[in-house]
Amino acid sequence: MDSLPGNSEIPKRLDKLKTKRFPIVKKNLVRHSAQTFVDNKSPYVLPISMKISLGQAGSSPMICACEVFMADAQNLSSTPDRPLPQETNRLRIYFAAAAAVVLVAAAIFLQTFAASPLPMPAPYLGPLPSATPPKEIAVYAVFTGVNHRVAAFAYRGGSFFDRRDFSMAGTLVRHPRGDLLIDAGFGHDIDQQLRALPLFFRAITSYRLWRPAADQLRAAGYDPKSLHAILLTHSHWDHVSGLPDFPGVPVWVTTPEREFIRKSGPMDFCKLFTGIRYEEYSFAGGPYLGFPASHDVYGDGSIVVVPAPGHTPGSVIVFVALHNGTRYAFVGDIVYQMEGITQREERSWLIRKLGADEDSAGNRRNLLHLIAIKERLPDMIVVPAHEMRAFAQLPKLSAAGAQR
Ligand SMILES: [Zn+2]
C-alpha cells in the first residue's frame, strides 16, 4: 500500500471539494454532468451531504444545482492517521454509488417537469356545426373556491415558483327548455369530504372555499331546485363536492363515468353521497367537430356534449353556442391551465401518475384534437375547469342574470 497522507493534507482536500458546484441541469435541460463524490485518492471515507436547488433563469423554467458538502471537516481533520481497512474501501464505493443514484434520480425526476411541447396536430378540416340557439341562452360563471397550486403542477415547463389559484367552479347555462349547471365546484361539506382522499394528496392540497354554488344561486334569487340537471365534465372530487347541496336535481353522467363512480377510485368521494339522482345519457348524435359522436341536449345545437375519455373514462367536453355567435368549450380537466393548449404541454409524468389521468394517451389525443379545433375556431373560448383566466371571460352570476 502507498504511504498514507498525514492529517495536514486532509483540510486542503476538503476545502477544494467543499466549494465546488456541479450543475446537472442547465438551460432547457440539454446539459448534464455527473460527479464523483468521493476523492479517489483519499484513503479516508469522506462524509458527504448534497443540496439540490431549484431556480429560474431567463426562459428556462428550472435550474438544478447540486452542491456537495464535506461534513464535519474539523472532526475529520483531527482523525488520527491510520491505514485504510478493506471495509472502509468498500464503504467508500457504496457512498459514491448511492450518491450517484440519488443525483441521477433527481435529474430524471426534474426532467419530467421540463418543457416538452407535443407535436402540432394535423389541422381540423371537417365541417363546422350549425346551431340555432335561442335568444335567451346565457352562461354565468359560479366560482365556489380556489385550490392553491403552482404552474409546474398544471403543465410541463411550468415553474415551481409560479403560484396559480386553480378555479373551483360551476357554470350556469340558462336555456328556455331547462337550465344546466356544468360541474358543481366546492360544496358546503368540502372540509369533511376531503378527509376521504389519500393522505399524500391532502398533504399537497391547500384550498379555500368561497361560497357553494347552491348558496350563490339562492342569493341571486334563483331556486337551485329549478335546475333541469347538473352536467358533469367528470366525477373527480373537485367537480362533485357541491352535488349534495342540490337534492333532487338529476346529475347527468355518461355510462362509463357512472361505472367509474361505482368503482370509486381514490380521488373520488361520490361514495360519500347518498340520494344522488344519476341519469345516464348516450351519444346518439353523429360526429361533431371531429369527435366521433355527440349528444345535442336540446336539438338546437346550442349545448352539445362529446365524449373525451382519458382524464377519466367518461370525461366529456361541453360545447355551448350563444345566439350572438359566441362559442364556448368547457373541457373539464383535459388541461388544468391554458398553457396546456397554447404551448401544447400536457401534465408532467409525475402528476399524471399520481392520479390525474386514468388514460394519459387518451387524454393526449383529446388535447391535440382540441388544439386543432382551436386553430380552426380561434374565437371559441376554451374553458378548462381550473383556469381562472378563462372563467374571467364569462359573465358572473348576478341577480339580474339569475332572475330573467
Ligand atoms: Zn379537477
Question: Would you write up a description of this structure?
Answer:
With 404 residues, the chain is α/β, with parallel strands linked by helices. The protein has 2 domains: 7-109, no CATH class; 138-403, Metallo-beta-lactamase, Chain A, CATH 3.60.15. It has helices at residues 10-18, 73-77, 86-111, 151-154, 190-194, 199-203, 213-219, 237-240, 255-263, 339-342, 349-356, 360-376, 388-391, 399-403, and strands at residues 21-25, 48-57, 60-70, 138-150, 163-174, 180-182, 206-209, 229-231, 251-254, 278-281, 295-296, 303-307, 316-321, 327-332, 381-384. The strands form 3 sheets. A 7-stranded mixed beta sheet has the order 7-4-5-6-8-9-10. Strands 11-12-13-14-15 form a 5-stranded mixed beta sheet, with no helix packed on it. Strands 1-3-2 form a 3-stranded antiparallel beta sheet. β2 (48-57) and β3 form a beta hairpin. The longest helix has 26 residues, at 86-111. Zinc ion (ZN) is lined by residues 236, 238-239, 333, 385-386.
Sequence-ordered SSE layout with sheet pairings:
Layout: H1 10-18, E1 21-25, E2 48-57, E3 60-70, H2 73-77, H3 86-111, E4 138-150, H4 151-154, E5 163-174, E6 180-182, H5 190-194, H6 199-203, E7 206-209, H7 213-219, E8 229-231, H8 237-240, E9 251-254, H9 255-263, E10 278-281, E11 295-296, E12 303-307, E13 316-321, E14 327-332, H10 339-342, H11 349-356, H12 360-376, E15 381-384, H13 388-391, H14 399-403
Parallel strand pairs: 6-8, 8-9, 9-10, 14-15
Antiparallel strand pairs: 1-3, 2-3, 4-5, 4-7, 5-6, 11-12, 12-13, 13-14
This protein binds zinc ion.
